[in-house]
Amino acid sequence: MAYIRYKAVAITVYWFISYLTVAEGRYDPTWESLDARPLPSWYDQAKIGIFIHWGVFSVPSYGSEWFWYAWKGNPPAQDVIEFMKKNYPPNFTYADFASMFTTEFFNPDQWADLFNASGARYVVLTSKHHEGFTNWPSSRSFNWNSMAVRPKKDLVGMLAASIRNRTNIHFGLYHSLFEWFNPLLLQDYANSFTTDFFSSGKSMPELYEIVNQYEPEIVWSDGDWYGPVEYWKSREFLAWLYNESPVKDTVVTNDRWGWGSTCHHGGYFTCSDRYNPGTLQTRKWENAFTIDKYSWGYVRNSPLENYLTMDNITQIIAETISCGGNILINIGPTKDGTIDPILEERLRQMGDWLRVNGEAIYNTTPWVYQNDSYTPNVWYTSKKVGFYTKVYAIVLEWPETKTLYLASPIPSRGTQVSLLGYSSTIAWRMPVSHSIGIELYMPIIPLNAMPCRWAWVFLLEYLYT
User: Fold this and answer.
1) Where are the domains of the chain?
2) 403-447: per-residue pLDDT in tens?
3) What are its E.C. numbers (predicted)?
4) The 218-222 sheet, strands edge to edge
5) CATH fold of the domain at 378-463
6) I need a labelling partner for 275 at 20 to 30 A (CA). Which of 14, 288, 292, 398 fits?
7) DSSP bridge partners of 124
């Protein structure tokens, strides 16, 4: 009995100390402590981010950003081998592509203005992908970085400066923990990770360097499947990031920090590429997806059907935000530093849509229902205003009938309905053929007067539920 009392007291003391540690903003290098850190509020409010995959892989721009591994991995991809035979000399190496990473048309101010026009509230740039090439003059990459060879520029620093000087967008950085063919990592792997030549000598020092030098408010880690958390010393890095770094109060991180961490530990969850569970999650999450359906990097020969349409994108936005997630929509710039017109068009179209309907996206929270229980392709978000809640119904398809039936909202006598971007109120009635819900009279609007071209948002106020 004395042991039980001692154990109960010990547990109480442990949780009390943990509470004080979190309350004081001090975090230990344990998942219990790190996972207890509240996510800075700006991230959940922002909702919309842009991912940028850019590196030496943008030079061949064939297949995907995994080009080098497809060429030299085990087993290699036959189409990539044939591509190299047809287009490059026999002794050509992947490192030779770096001299062609010219970025001569890279204008970071233009990029910043485009991202601002897209409606994005944060940007995540690739600082280093699995190829190991760093887009900044890393002290750990010797001659394999953007200053030592072409493009002879600090790409990270240039974009960070433009984003901060021209917009209110939060700047973040992607960083791959591992590198496909780094001999130090391969040696650690052969030693079953009992040595840490790569993690301690290169990968983790890079993370500390980019945080201290560029102060990103998002640290988007990747390559977590190659090695345990202990090998990467991820928890020690996160404790430093939250306790001592120059961005300790505002930085957010994802969940890719080593074996067993993905979808379980870290800041917000990414779980898998293009993660879109379709249901409300208990933890903040992010849907990182690509406009080119099959590649994160730019691919020169992608046909039109490989690109998402704006109907696709607004559907992903509606599904993701309704279920409590953020979207991180990816583009792959070219080797010369331009953004392909079809990618620019999608970003500007997204901005046009958000200028009308952003009220239903930014600073919202999930409603009691995520999608309508009867009518398909209707997703809900909500926003607390004083003592009542505004509900937004995102309708992906304009009804062919004169009315739109929604089963989930329960109207009161004072319920008011409007269409975002449309000046007149929307008439409604109690359902004729259903016992619950609300029926909206669809307004007759000329095509040139429609508030937007994709996905329409109805604002419902003063509902019972």
Assistant:
1) 1-36, 40-360, 378-463
2) 999 999 999 999 999 999 999 999 999 998 888 999 999 999 999
3) 3.2.1.51
4) 252-253, 218-222, 170-176, 122-128, 48-52, 325-331, 285-290
5) Immunoglobulin-like (2.60.40)
6) 398
7) 51, 172
Q: Which helix (H) or strand (E) holds 170?
A: strand 170-176
As given in the structure block, the two tokens for residue 114 are 């485009």
pTM of the shown model: 0.93
Amino acid present at 148 = A
Tokens representing 90 are: 């026999």
- Whole-Å CA distances, 125 to 171, 217, 331, 406, 464: 8, 12, 10, 40, 44
Do the bridges between strand 456-463 and strand 411-419 make them parallel or antiparallel, or are there none, so unpaired?
antiparallel
pLDDT tens for 178-202 read 999 999 999 999 999 999 999 999 9
What topology is assigned to 40-360 in CATH?
TIM Barrel (3.20.20)
- Residue 387 pLDDT class (50, 70, 90 cuts): confident
CA angle (312 as vertex; 168, 298 as ends), nearest 5:
70
DSSP-assigned beta bridge partners for residue 252: 218
For residue 257, the number of C-alpha atoms closer than 13 Å in the C-beta half-sphere is 27
At 57, list the tokens: 């892989």
Are residues 458 and 451 in contact, defined by beta-carbon separation less than 8 angstroms? Answer: no
